[in-house]
Write a structure and sequence with these properties.
By secondary structure, the protein is mainly alpha-helical. The chain is 51% helix and 6% strand. It contains four helices and two strands; from the N terminus they run αββααα. The relative contact order is 0.13.
Length: 126
Amino acid sequence: MPQYDRQEILSRTNGFCGYCGKSISNEDWHIDHIKPKLRGGRNNKKNLVASCQRCNLSKNCQSVDEYRDRAKTKALGSIDEMLQCLEWRFLHSVKEPQAQLIRKYISALYHVIEHTDVVFLLDMLE
């Protein structure tokens, strides 16, 4: 693909990954097929997006929705484990009034994360 086409694709996302929003440099990025070629996606500009290496290699031949759902499930599972660990740690060291506040905070935090439709939740875990 000609260099000017690559720059046009990168400029459509303003230098950010089209999936996770991570800033990507001029040299360190991939072009990904939004609809994978294995699933009938075409090699035209409308089906191409700039992506970071991690998103492109992780997405593989999934649709965008499948990729985001899988990434979100993975992130929520890891975050759920982390919150359970925090809850156990704090709840065993505080009295009941504080424990109720901690439970409310953890529940609210999980609710916010659960309803966030972004792939970069994975970045929180690295």
